[in-house]
Amino acid sequence: MTRKKSDRAGWGINTRLTHSGNDPHDYYGFVNPPVVRASTVLFPDAETIENNNQKYRYGTHGTPTTDALADAVDELEGSAGTIIVPSGLMAVTVPLLAFLEAGDHILVVDSVYFPTRRFCDGMLRKLGVEVTYYDPLIGAGIDALMKPNTKVVFTESPGSNTMEIQDIPAIAEVAHRHGAVVMMDNTWATPLYFKPLDFGVDISIHAATKYPAGHADVLLGLVSANDKHWKKLEDAKTNLGVCAGPDDTYLVLRGLRSMGVRLAHHEKSALEIARQLEGSEGVSQVLHPALPSSPGHAIWKRDFKGSSGLFSIVLDGGPSGEVQRKKAHAFLDALQIFGLGYSWGGYESLAVQVRLEDRTIAKGPTAGPLIRLQIGLEDTRDLLADIERGLEAAKRVAG
C-alpha cells in the first residue's frame, strides 16, 4: 500500500530516513530505486515532444534516481524543491549565480568555508558583484551593513574551523526587511539537527559528500529552496547545465538511510572527546558549539537539536609562527588512527591544520596552531589515545 507524505509526519527521524524518497511498489517491490543512467529520453509521439508533455524529457532534467533523493531531502528540509549538483562547492556557487548579478552586493560571514570565499573574491568580483564580509557573531547588528543593492546574505553556522554559531533568525529578519535572500551552508548540522527554512533561511545548502554519503567515496551537493525562491533556483540549475551522475546520487540516497544512526554516534563520540580535551595539558582551547565555552553556545542550545562530529582544538603555542608550525606538524605526524586529509563526515577520523590568514573580520584564536578534528566511528578510547600521542609529540617541540 502506497503511503502519503502526510502519513509519515508523526514518524521518528530514523523511520523517515529509512522510508522517504521512494515507494518500493513503484518498482515491483524492490526496496531500492533503480539507478537510471540516461541522456536521451524517448517520447511516444510528435505532439508529446512538441509540448514537452511527459515527466522525463532529458537526462539533465532529472531521472527517477535523482527524484528519489530530491524527494527525500525535501521531506527532511520542508522545502519546495531540491537540486542535486556534482559537489558541495557547486551547491554554493549555483545559488549565488542564480540570485546575483553585476552591481549587486553580497554579505558573507567571515568564518565561511574557504572555497566559498575564493569563489566570492574571484568569480563574483569579476562579474561585478560587491562582496563584504561580516563578523559571525553580529546577529541583528548586520542591519548596519545592509545596502540598497544587498541582494544576498550568505551564512554558515557553525563557522568553518572556528565553530562560531550565528543568530540565524535575527539575521534573516533583517535581511528580509531589506529584500535580501538568505542562504545558509548547513553541512555541519544537516537537517536532522537544524532545519534552516524553519528559521527564516530561503536557500539551504549541503555538501552531501559529508554526512548524507557518509563513506568518503562520493562527491555531491544539495540545494533546497522555499516556495518563493524555488523556481529561480531550478531555472539557474537548468541554464547552467549542471547535473549529478546517477551512481553518485544513488550512493547518497543509500547513505541517507543510515545517516541518523551514524550522526548520533559521531555526536556522542565528538562530545566525549571534546569534553576530555577541554583543560587538558597541551590544549589551549576547544572549539565545539555544544560546549558552554564556545562562541554562540547559547544560540546553539536555543536553535539546534544536536551536534555533529566536527570540531577544532587550539594547541598550546610558542613564541613564533615557526614554533607553532613545528608543533602542529609534530602533533599530526604522531597520529596513527586519524588520517591527515580534507573533507569530513565519513566513517573515518581525520585531522588537519587550519590557517586563518584569509579572514578580515573574525581573526580566530592565535594562542597556538588550530587543528580541525573529524571524529569518525572508531572507538572513543582509541581516538583519545591517538590524540594523546599527538599532544605528547607537540609538547616535545622546543619553544
UniProtKB/TrEMBL annotation:
Catalytic activity as recorded in UniProt: L,L-cystathionine + H2O = L-homocysteine + pyruvate + NH4(+)
Superkingdom of the source species: Bacteria
Gene3D superfamilies registered for this protein in UniProt: Aspartate Aminotransferase, domain 1, Type I PLP-dependent aspartate aminotransferase-like (Major domain)
Keywords: Lyase, Pyridoxal phosphate
GO MF annotation list: cysteine-S-conjugate beta-lyase activity
Cofactor(s) for this UniProt protein: pyridoxal 5'-phosphate
Protein family per UniProt: Belongs to the trans-sulfuration enzymes family.
Protein name, entry field: Cystathionine beta-lyase
InterPro entries: Cys/Met-Metab_PyrdxlP-dep_enz, Cys_b_lyase_bac, PyrdxlP-dep_Trfase, PyrdxlP-dep_Trfase_major, PyrdxlP-dep_Trfase_small
PANTHER family listed in its UniProt record: CYSTATHIONINE BETA-LYASE-RELATED
EC number of the protein: 4.4.1.13
One Pfam family matching this protein: Cys_Met_Meta_PP
Keyword Lyase: yes
